[in-house]
Design goal:
With 129 residues, the protein is an alpha+beta fold. The chain is built from 3 helices and 6 strands; from the N terminus they run H-H-E-E-E-E-E-E-H. The longest helix is centred in the C-terminal third of the chain and has 16 residues. The termini are far apart.
Length: 129
């Protein structure tokens, strides 16, 4: 069985510059949301769940014009649309469920604002049956 660090090295092989930012994100999620958060490294994304998925991290394969060459995409769902300049894309896949994508270029962008959104997404996921 592959260990977590090996999984991360493989996941970030196409953009290793984003691994340090991801590690800050993971550390803050475990510290601020809970050490029992399940982290699952998949082929195209890393999911964070506690009964239900509340957030994801990925390295964009397709980039829109103007997106940075190296970035980590942090994705989370809320019951409302965020009107924040940091949100690169927001979609409403079904009523009152907004999926938000925030692009992170540097580890210091994993800040209190982003973590507040992830905590809100976590609370929303726990409220769902």
């Amino acid at each position: 069985m592959e260990n977590h660090d090996d999984e991360l090295e493989r996941f970030f092989a196409r953009d290793p510059l984003m691994l340090p930012a991801y590690r800050v994100l993971e550390d803050r999620i475990l510290a601020e949301i809970g050490a029992d958060v399940l982290i699952r490294v998949q082929k195209t994304q890393i999911t964070f769940s506690d009964r239900r998925v509340f957030g994801c991290a990925s390295v964009p394969i397709r980039r829109r014009r103007g997106w940075p060459r190296h970035c980590l995409m942090v994705t989370f769902g809320l019951a409302h649309r965020l009107n924040a300049p940091r949100v690169a894309v927001a979609t409403e896949p079904y009523p009152d469920r907004w999926t938000h994508h925030v692009l992170v270029e540097h580890a210091d962008e994993i800040d209190d604002e982003l973590m507040a959104w992830l905590r809100e997404a976590h609370a929303l996921s726990l409220s769902k049956r």
